[in-house]
Amino acid sequence: MMTRLVSGVALATAALVAIRFLPLLPLRVLTCVVAALAAKEYLDIVDSPIRAVVLVIALCWVVSGTTVVSPLILLTMALLWVAAELLISNHSIQQASTGIFAAVYIGMPLGMLVAVHRLLDWRATLLLIGTVVVSDSMQYFTGRMLGRHPLAPAISPKKTIEGAIGGVIFGTAFLTIVGSLVLPFSGYAPLIVLGLLVVILGICGDLFESRLKRTAGMKDSSALIPGHGGVLDRIDALLFAVAPFYLYIRNVT
Question: What ranges in 46-107 are assigned the alpha helix state H?
Fold first, then answer.
């Protein structure tokens, strides 16, 4: 427990300092490093070649460097990757497409997180991360106190419907209340809807990664972070939660 607490505090402090004080370029580089570590864990889980990390980093870099990504660029990157995979390996198209999914699943959302920082500032980035953290924490505590009915027993036996409801309520409340200060141009109704989307998708992201690990017979994505598992274990909910927040910020600023 102490190891988990210490590493958790250290991780949170490092993330806070990076988001608050790093200029945009070093922040993009750091985010690509995080994307590479998470991608390595994902590719290990699905038993896919590690070279797909290159595509994840490339997409993270492209998305983090602009506020709008051309679909043509994304399509070109995907087609070139599949073509290269088929030419240099004996993989099927399905296997060759694993790298594309890794890039969309990990590289794109983390790039969007930096794009939020670019569109507004560090407060918006921390608002999103804080919402996911509050939701995740309240799912745990509410589930421990009131949990009776499993949410997805075949995927994550410890998660309960009551815990999920607690996470949705508190996470949405956090984004609505704090968001009214960080995003003063937004009304309460849009923030409530945004909060619901962010939290519910975050829960889906958590369950998605749990499903991946259960299929592979793994408890954690890696042992990189003492007491917490791997990078992917720490950002699984965030990966699904970023998209609606990014799209909202992009369209209202």
Answer: 53-64, 71-88, 93-96, 98-102
